[in-house]
Every structure is written in structure tokens, then in C-alpha cells.
Amino acid sequence: MPSKWTRWIPAALVPIVAVAGVVLIPIAADATPALPEKSPQQLLEFIAGSADAQYSGTVEQSSHLGLPDLSSLGSSYRGGAGSDSPVSAAVELLTGTNSARVFVGGPDTARIQVTDTLAERDVIRNGAEAWTYDSKTNAVQHVTATPGTRPDTGATRTPAELATQFIDGLEPSTTISVTETARVAGRAVYQLVLTPDDDATLVGSVILSVDSETGLPLDVRIFADGQSDAAFAVGFSSIDFSAQDASLFNFTPPAGATVEEHQVDGNSDTAPDKGEFTKPEVTGAGWSSIAELPAGTASDLGDSEASALLDQVLVPVTGGRALETSLVSVFLANDGRVLVGAVAIDQLQAAAAQ
Amino acid sequence: MSQSDTRRNLGLALLGSEITIVFRRRRNQAMLLALAAVPILIAVAVRLSSNTSGRGPAFLASISENGLFVALTALTVSIPLFLPLTVGVVAGDTIAGEANLGTLRYLLISPAGRLRLLLVKYAGAAAFCLAATAIVVIAGVAIGAALFPVRPVTLLSGDTIDGAEYAVRCLLLIAYVSMSMLGLSAIGLFLSTLTTVPVGAMAATIVLSAASQILDVLPQLAWLHPWLFSHYWLGIADLLTSPISFDSFQSNALLQLGYIAVFGTLAYGRFATKDVLS
Amino acid sequence: MTDGALAIETHGLTKRFGSQLAVNQLDIAVPSGSVFGFLGPNGSGKTTTIRMLLGLASATSGEIRMLGSAMPQSLQSVLPRVGALVEGPAIYPFLSGRANLARLDSADRFASSRTRTARVDAALDRVGLTHAARKKAHAYSLGMKQRLGIANALLTPRDLLILDEPTNGLDPQGTREMRNLIRSLAAEGTTVFVSSHLLAEIEQTCSHVAVMSAGRLVAQGTLDDLRAEGVTRVEVRTPDLDLAREVLARWGLQSQPGPIDSSLTAALTTSVPVEQLSEALVIAGVRLRGFTAEGASLEDRFVALTGEGFDVAE
């Protein structure tokens, strides 16, 4: 039968069409949309004016810090309470890719849903009230802020003032520029680039993508010196600017859940404070600042799981143990002090020696 | 001429016959019963054990508080192994099973038409996917209601829904999970055209489903993960949040469609050019 | 269907499996209304030919026409008019005999679902399986399975039946019923194409024969033609021995003294038509007491054509 081979044509065409679809559709969308030009100052004002926006979307966070992979250790599959320890939570954040659904209904109503495999953690803020819910433990935390005592930061300032303040804060150590436009979550964005002038820091640059219509920052990427992939990135993979249903932010604890009540002074953050951390001592300035936590901090971190995790990532160096990533270094001195900074290890060692 | 009084009909009779055969086979009935046993065993085990706060899948502890979670737990337990196993058996059997019995040649000279036979066989396998998923959910809902208190259901987000909405979500779960198995079925169909030994095609299909799931947890292969047909299998959590998210549903549908297209056309290429010698 | 039309016609039909030629340049012509015996030892390419006729296997080269249409292009419109039994029956062991037939019938888009039950019952009745119709087919004996396979070929009225080794597994009673069935089908005007390695079966039912050996066609024609071609020796009984010897010599035949005094025998080296030979003897004035054309039996003929005969060909 001479036409025999023609029966294979569909099988040959389908992968071609599929690959073409996957490759070409993103290309077809203009990668650098034409937008009216904005100066860094204008762009920052634009951002400050977006505080009232209502939207929902999916946020993806990923890290490429050059850490060994610890997902098997920090796995969210384990039911025990140990996986909720701050260290493993940090490891989860620093090594993998995480995603969350975000719903924002205005400046003080928001809901964040972090999804794991068949589990979810919710944080809901509705004005002076906040809730957290963890489906694994069926535990609810309810935080109420004492009304009235909250200082109204920001509201009295205009976006222009905020922008100026931000630039003034960064200007001495940073070059701020606006580069070519791009697309994030299918939307045209401006890109604001912060480049540290300081050579000592590991941070190469920070790129902030700003939605061209609403001024909402859609994506932040931090690049380590000399790296082409972002060491740390958090941004929307999809976003929808439509008004949010108010019922989304009204949380009622489900039957059978354990509810923990917290009263918080309006002056502090809405999130409940978990422990009393000593305020770190900061040396240096700008991008190469080093934070130093006093002796004893390192041992506080620790249940057995946490120390197992730490053993995995820490490398012995002169005077202690260290964790070096492409962006941040941590130095655990033998005397128990912990030094952290976006600088190389030797600078932390030097600071510790002082 | 003998055909003057009969007209060519749509040929739905073959589809009906195929579905009847799929569900009348003892082996397939046994597999469906085994799937129904999954929620029953889980529910009974939880009922009998006083300590329900033990380790296990996230939902196990919730069962004793709310019977409606039995279905969900059973589904979660079945997705990685039992469902692909049974679907692999049915999909791997499609063409190879007929070839092995020798009935393939009689179907073809009936004539069934090779493309039509392939479509009907796939439809039969798809019907089994739907039945297999549905039986887990339905048996789970039933045994859960029988052994445990039934309350309004708490979603993963902590919000509570009523019975009617729970029914809707159960239907969505069935739709999602049976759709998840369609790509695997297409692979099984293709493998089934390669051999006249059904057990070979079944085993290969099941091995592939296991391989895909193993690759999906290797972090070194993160770039490959979104292309693996099992990648969204456990994405059912999306249907249990509030507000409901169809992201996984959509991505999964697109992915499964891709697998159906690729392996469906491969199966056609192979089957339409194959010499049926058994 | 007009007389003289061909139900099956192949030209240069060839099937190659790798380096092996299973069917080599086959030209067969099956007249409509005939009962056509397709004879050959096991492995001679009969079943492969049938597979190509039915579109189960594709030909490496060559042409096929069946019921007037080119194959395999017209498979879908021709096959509903063709009933077939290929390389033994095949059953769904978990279905009853009746359900087996209904299943295969549903694959035919020309077969009406309304008349299915009636047609299935009629087919079962025709092969004498009515009493076992409800039994699961895995409990069937080999002969019952064979009958079920025949019933499948008879589900709708057919113009052509292709039966591959139809008497396999049948007891003598069943074999006779099969012969009667083939005769009655032929009487209804159905062309029947029967393959077999059993000569006796072909000899008793067929009007036409084709013989295959090692993938090639070695003889084709009516059964009478084949018989005639099989004559190898004549015996002449006459008082006029010298005259007879002279006439035979004229036809190029060497004669020897026969078994009795006044007789001669001669081996037929070439294909001399026996009837012309007898005519020539009479015209020459040979007074004949007897003239016998001694055939090698059809069986000898078959063995002669197919070489080693019934051994499975390589």
C-alpha cells in the first residue's frame, strides 16, 4: 500500500503543533510593549498610588541561592509539628518554589492562601481583625488589634512624598533607573532597577516590575552579583484586577477547630509575635550592612530537627560555622553569636572578630 | 443485492457493546469492587482504632469528625497506585486483548474500521476511568455517612459549605480525577497496539505511571515536571479551597489533551498500518 | 451479479515478511457462484493470502479486486457483503455464544440493530448451536467454537464467504454438515472460497480449485481440468498391437507391453489430451477392446504439484 506512511502524518504533526503552541504563544505576545516613558520618581509615585487596588492572583516565589536541596528534609508531607518550626519553614522558603493565592480587597483587607499537597494555610486580614487557619492542624489564630491606637502611617503623605522619601533613602548607595518594559502575568510592566553602588555586597541588582495600568508592583527579583537567574524572585504568575467579594474576608472558624485568641496593641504588626527576639545590632551601611545577634541565639533555634537541618547546610570555617549562599551569608561564631549580611563570609568573620 | 434494505447506521451499537463488555468482564468488576473497598477499609479502620490522631495522610484524622472526608481520603490514597493500576489494566487490554483472543480480526472484517474501533476502544477505557473514580467517591460518601457523623464540610481554607455544594464539589472531583486518567489511558491504548500480549501492554502502562510519579518528585528534573502526565494528579486540593480554583483543572485538562493527541495519533499511526496476524 | 464476473481477482499479489516471500506473484480468479477450493499444504501462504483479501494485512505489491471493487480501498463497503472464517474461530470466552455473535455483528455498521437478535438466532440455528446459545463460550468444545465462527460468517446474507479450514476440529458428522452447508449456500448463489489442506474435502464440494505451494500458485482451474491434467498413463487393449504402437509413437509416446498379452501401456510424458488420443486410435482403425486413462489419483497429483506434499513448508 503506497499510502501507508500517510497514516503516521497525524502522529508526526501533533507534537510539532503542540511544541509550536507552547513555544510560539508566549513569543507572540509582545515581549517589550511600548509604554509612555516614566522617570524613576514618576514610577515610584505611580506605585504609591496603587495602594487601593483590588485584585486576586497567584503569586509564585522561587529561590536559587545555591543551597543544597533540602526538600526531603523540610518536606511538608510530614504530619508532625516539627515541620512548622521556624527553621524548616525558612528552608522551605529558601530552597524550593512556593505559590500562594492572594486576594486583596483594598488597603486593609486581604487573604493569602498557601497551598501544599492537599493542605492549605490561610491568612485573612479584615480591617482590625486577622485570622490564620492551618488545614493540617485545623487550628485557628484570631488576632484583634486594639482600635484607634494605630498610627496612620502613610495615609497623610502623598504618593509623591512617599516616592521622594524612598529615593532619598536609597540614593546614596544605589543607582535607580527604569529599563525597558516587559510582561509579567500577561500584563505590560515597567521595570525599576536598583543597582547597589557598593562592591562589598553580594546583591547585584533588584528589579521591580510595575503594572503599567494600575501601578501595582507585580514582581520582584533579586539578582546576585554575576548571576543571570534571579537568586530570589517573588511575583504574580496570574492576576485579575476585579473587585473582590467581601465575604472572602469574613472568616468564621469551622466547627471543631481550635481557636487561639490574641490581642495586639495597634502599634505593632498584625501578625502575632512568636518569641521575644533581641533586636540585632547593625554594623556597616547600605547594602553591605551586617546584622549581629548576640550569643545564645543559635542554640535557641533549636529542636532536633532544626539542628539536623542546620548540620546539612553549615560548613565549618575559621571561628565557627557558616552558610554561604549566592545572596546572603550567615556566620555562626563559636561563641554563639550569629552574623547575617548580604556580603561574603570573610566580611562576616571580620565583623565578628571586631 | 443483499444490502439494499439496510442503510449504514451511525455505529453506536459498537460503542454500546464495548461499554457493556468492559463492565461485564469479571476482572473489571473485581477491580471496581477493589476500588470500592478502599474507602470502606479506611473508614472501618479509622472507626475501629481509638487513636485517630496518628500519622498518615492529612485527612485521615478528619474522618472521625466528618464522614464526608472518607471519599476524599480514599481518592487521595487511590490516585497514586490503585487507580493507575486498574486503568492501566483496562487501557493496556484495549487492542492487545482483542488481538490475543483473535477477535480483533473478526471485528476488523465485520468491518469495524480501524479508526472507529480505536475510538470505541478508547471510549470504553475512558468510561472505565469515570466509573473507577466515581465508585471510590460514591462508596466513600456512603460508608462515611454510615459510620461517622456528617457535618457541614470544612474546606481547606477553613470555610464551611453545605451539602448541596459538597455534592457539586464531589462531582468536580470525579470529573477531575477521571480526566487525570485519560492521558494514561491514551498511553495504554498506544502500547496496546504494539503487542498481542495484553499483560505486556498493561505492565508497561502501569510502570510508566509509576515512573512518571517518581520523576515528578525528583527536584533535579523540575523542568520536566509540568510535562509529566501525573503532574496534576493530586491537584484536587484546588477544588477544595474557597473560592474554588480552576487553575489545576485547566492546566490538567490541557496536559491530558496533549497526551491524548500525541498518543492517540501514535496509536492510530500504528494501528492503521499494522498487519493483524493474530 | 452477472455470470462470468469474478468474485475475487488478484494480480501479482505478493507479501514479504522480512526476507521471506510468504506469497509470491499470486494471480487467482474466483468466478462468481463457484465453490472455490484453495488447496495447499500448511504454510504455503493460504492464510496470508486470505488476510490480504480481507484487509487484515497489507500486500507488499499487487492488486486485489473483490466483488468488483479494488481492495483495500473499498474495504468498508465490500466487507459487509463478505463473511469469513480466518485461521480458526475466535471467541470472547466470558460471553455466551449469542452475545459473542451480537458483539461482532454490532461492529458492522450496515447491520441493523433492530434485526440483530433475529439474525443471530437464525445463524445459530443454521449451524446447530441453538441449544448452546446461552452457554458461556469458554465451555464450548473445539467443534462448537468452529460452528460459532461459521455462524458469525452467516450473520447477514453474504455474496462471498471466505472459509479458512472450515472443518478443523469438526467430527465426521460435523464435517458432513459443513459440506452440506457449503452446498446449500452455493445453491443460494453465494460464492464460497474454501481453503484447506485436506484434498478430500475440496474434492467433494468444490467446482474450482487453486493449488498453492511455497507461496506460489501451481495450478488453477475447474476440478475436472485438474483431474484431466492428472492422467499419467494409458492402457490400450487391442488385437492390433503394431498399429496401436505406431499411432502412439506418432504422439511421441513410448509404449511397452501391457499386463495381458494383447495390451499396451504408455506413460504420458507431455500433456496429451486423452480424448484426442482415443480418437486418433479409432481413426487409424485400431480395434479397441479397451482404453483406460489411468489417473494418478487427485491426491498423487496434489503431491506432485506441491512437492513434498503435506509437510509444513519452510
UniProtKB/TrEMBL annotation, chain A:
The keyword Lipoprotein applies. InterPro entries: LolA/LolB/LppX, OM_lipoprot_carrier_LolA-like, Sporulation_related. Keywords: Lipoprotein. It comes from the Bacteria. SUPFAM superfamilies: Prokaryotic lipoproteins and lipoprotein localization factors. Transmembrane segments: none annotated. This is Outer membrane lipoprotein-sorting protein.
TrEMBL record, chain B:
Signal peptide: none annotated. The keyword Transmembrane applies. It comes from the Bacteria. Keywords: Membrane, Transmembrane, Transmembrane helix. The chain crosses the membrane at residues 30-48, 68-96, 117-146, 166-190, 197-215, 253-271. Pfam families: ABC2_membrane_4. PANTHER family: INTEGRAL MEMBRANE PROTEIN-RELATED, MEMBRANE PROTEIN. This is ABC-2 type transport system permease protein.
UniProtKB/TrEMBL annotation, chain C:
Keywords: ATP-binding, Nucleotide-binding, Transport. SUPFAM superfamilies: P-loop containing nucleoside triphosphate hydrolases. Signal peptide: none annotated. InterPro entries: AAA+_ATPase, ABC_transporter-like_ATP-bd, ABC_transporter-like_CS, P-loop_NTPase. It comes from the Bacteria. Residues 8-239 form the ABC transporter domain. GO terms for molecular function: ATP binding; ATP hydrolysis activity. It holds the Pfam family ABC_tran. The keyword Nucleotide-binding applies. PROSITE patterns: ABC_TRANSPORTER_1 (PS00211), ABC_TRANSPORTER_2 (PS50893). Belongs to the ABC transporter superfamily. This is ABC-2 type transport system ATP-binding protein.
